[in-house]
Amino acid sequence: MTSKTQQTTNEIKNFVWSHYFGDGLxxxxxxxxxxxxxxxxxLQQIGITISLGALCASIADTPGPITHRRxxxxxxxxxxxxxxxxxxxxxxxxxxxxxxxxxFSFIFSMLHxxxxxxxxxxxxxxxxxxxxxxxxxxxxEIAHYSLYILTGGLWYSLLSLSxxxxxxxxxxxxxxxxxVIEVANFMRIKSGFYKAGMDYDENYKKLLLCQATVNDKxxxxxxxxxxxxxxxxxxxxxxxFLVIVFVDTxxxxxxxxxxxxxxxxxxxxxxxxxxxxxxxxxLIHLSDQLEEIGLALKADGKPNxxxxxxxxxxxxxxxxxxxxxxxxxxxxxxxxxxALKSIDVNIENIYLRIRKINSYFKDKKANxxxxxxxxxxxxxxxxxxSFDLFRENLNLKSGVFRHAIxxxxxxxxxxxxAQFSHFLHSNWILLTIIVIMKPAFSLTKERNxxxxxxxxxxxxxxxxxxxxxxxxxxxxxxxxxCILGTFIFIRKNYIISVxxxxxxxxxxxxxxxxxxxxxxxxxxxxxxxxxSIAFMASHFLLPSWEHQKLRTVLxxxxxxxxxxxxxxxxxxxxxxxxxxxxxxxxKEVYVRSANLASAFQRxxxxxxxxxxxxxxxxxxxxxxxxxxxxxxxxxxxxxEHCDDIQEFEKLQLVAMNTEKLMTEAxxxxxxxDGVIHQDLRIISLxxxxxxxxxxxxxxxxxxxxxxxxxxxxxxxxxxxV
Length: 721
Known about the structure:
Elements: H1 4-16, H2 19-39, H3 44-59, H4 66-90, H5 94-109, H6 116-131, H7 139-166, H8 170-191, H9 200-226, H10 229-232, H11 237-257, H12 263-270, H13 275-299, H14 308-325, H15 334-365, H16 387-392, H17 399-420, H18 427-436, H19 441-468, H20 472-489, H21 494-511, H22 517-540, H23 546-572, H24 579-604, H25 614-640, H26 652-670, H27 693-718
């Protein structure tokens, strides 16, 4: 098992080699360098404006295919220049400026309909809007200001694209490494089910959230690998390597997801023997080995492979054999022994797949990798950028439209307060609003809390630094460190990012000779005012509560599991195995599972009065996770025996009843009154494959899935959404 020291070392390596650190370093160089160069020529104001343009371009430069990043940076650069130009003219009239604030806040918030990257382009435009409000300029100054912002955006875009040309695979390596590490974390959490006295509900919560994170990482890798021309062609060993490692990691995750037996029942039978503790230890060691592979991917190195794993797996197998030889009906059930054997086989398969992934590092170096047969076109999504999509969302049924109304209203209120207050930097109020307000109340609440805490602590740190550090060179070094910390953590941990951001702003004001005690106080006041406005708007103005959207999420989850089950069970009843439709459906299950886990987590952060049927929703989430796990177990049998699969006609009644139960659960959730339509029951088949261990296990798996489907049907009756 990994020691505490090794865990800490791995966490540090994981962070330093992550794209968060690399992105933060790139953004820091792109934003700071123009100001540093022009500062030498006493052109500080021009340098700061160019840095602002670079910062705006960097906002849209999030991980993804290089074509998407390039287009987003260029659109953002042009857009913020135009916004700066318009705001410059509008600044001569308070009324006109107020109209521009409301109109732009609404339009740029509506960009959420086109996805996350487009919404970040809107955020960049709103950033320029808020920072340009307090300045009245002549026509020549407005033109120069817009031109400098354009120059900054182009400079940063050129820097980012140049770094990609130098290291075209770096981001894909880092993102794939993070995906592998998250799968390792999933396995580590799942190993907890073999620990005596485990809190199952708490562990399931962790598992479901981790599964959602794994899905996010898988989607990010999918976008990078299958939408990047260099990798899709797999014309290089590096491109082939990344694709086959990802494909094997997906299959490995399915094996880690599978469940062969009730954990509670296993503990009842085997806790006194102690064998479950050994299962936990082996799974943790496998997780450590997989994490080692993830770290090697991120560092562009080679993983160390543990030589003790084969011995531990052999010892575990022997322990099961000894247990089986001493078996008696009074001590253990036959199905319990079979479950241990099946879990052991699954662990061995996980080990073999990890060893296989490890071998790819050596094959890549020896140029032995061959092109994979992955049909990438089936596994990527395409964003729609038509005006029709924008227009279709201009109604109160659209969550994005409601969010845009909230943002524009909050910005108007913040603008009015800023105009009538005597603060020196009242645009900080509007800046707080745009960075805090998110489409979901729970996200706004979390961001608000992080912003406030980070600002208060950051002000304290800033005051301490400025009180005790007088040397300008030392202050400048601290300033650069704070800027780097801000950009490294801004997408990783917002509260830490704000904690770095506040001292760097205060030190910057000190360098410009503009710092006073009032600035410290105003920084906190503006954050409190902006945060309060954002919170009230999210809570009272066209609020978006999770229970309002929950019906769709629950139905989509059952729908995905039903399709998954239908696809897998059909292989047992004569349909020929085809991995493409199977993998497409499997991907959809992972996506819907992540959506459900995220929705539950957001709902848990909302006011108690809005947490409708939260206990039932949690149980629903756990049951659907079990359903997916049991189906994955059947699927593993198919993938490993697709050439000699037997037909299981006797189980067709069970399969049909399972699908009926799941369909009826969807009907209940879709109905407004939650009426119980039918009194459905579980079909029992006894001794279907007596004395045939493997076939008996498959039979029990079908019956267990039916039981879970029945539980989903029953819990659906209790959910009020």
